[in-house]
Design a protein that fits this description.
Layout: H1 5-11, H2 13-21, H3 25-47, H4 50-67, H5 77-99, H6 104-108, H7 121-126, H8 128-150
Helix pairs in contact: 2-3, 3-4, 3-5, 4-5
Length: 151
C-alpha cells in the first residue's frame, strides 16, 4: 500500500496537535494546511458560497489557534474542529438570514411596469444571457429553499 503525503501527515497529526497545544506556531500552521481543504469543503456545502465558506474556514482556524490549549483529548481533535466550523457556519447563517433579501426587479433589471416573463426552454437555450439569468434564478431559489428547510 502506498501512502500519500496526506496519509503520513495524518499519522503524525497527534504530534502536531500536541506541539500546537504547547504554543508551537509552526505546528498550528501545519494543522491549518492539513485541515483547510476539509473545513472549506464542509463550509461550502453549508453555504454554497465561496466567500462565506472561506470566511468560515478562516474563522475556524483562528479559533483553533486561540483555543487549542483547551483541547483535553487530542483524539477528539477532528470532532472538535468540525464543531467550531459548524458553530461559525450557523452563526453566519443567522446573520445573513436576517439581512438578506433579494429583489426580483434587481435580478431582471426591469422597470416597475414590466415583469419577467417565463420562457420555454428552447428559447432560453438560444439566448445565452437568458440561459444565464435562468441559471442564476434557479440557484437563488435553491438557496432559499434550503434556508426554509433548515428552519
Amino acid at each position: 500500500m502506498t501512502e500519500t503525503l496526506l496519509d503520513i501527515a495524518m499519522m503524525h497529526s497527534d504530534t502536531l496537535i500536541t506541539r500546537a497545544k504547547q504554543g508551537d506556531k509552526n505546528a498550528q500552521g501545519k494543522l491549518v494546511q492539513l485541515w483547510y481543504k476539509r473545513i472549506y469543503n464542509f463550509s461550502y456545502k453549508f453555504f454554497l458560497d465561496h466567500d462565506l465558506a472561506m470566511e468560515a474556514a478562516q474563522k475556524t482556524f483562528i479559533s483553533m489557534c486561540r483555543n487549542i490549549e483547551g483541547l483535553q483529548d487530542i483524539a477528539r481533535f477532528k470532532s472538535w474542529i468540525y464543531k467550531i466550523a459548524v458553530n461559525y457556519c450557523r452563526e453566519e447563517a443567522r446573520k445573513t438570514k436576517n439581512s438578506k433579501s433579494i429583489s426580483m426587479d434587481k435580478i431582471y433589471n426591469v422597470e416597475a411596469e414590466e415583469s419577467p416573463q417565463w420562457e420555454n426552454s428552447s428559447a432560453r437555450s438560444d439566448n445565452p444571457e437568458k440561459h444565464y439569468q435562468h441559471t442564476e434564478l434557479s440557484d437563488i431559489l435553491q438557496k432559499s429553499l434550503m434556508e426554509l428547510s433548515a428552519e
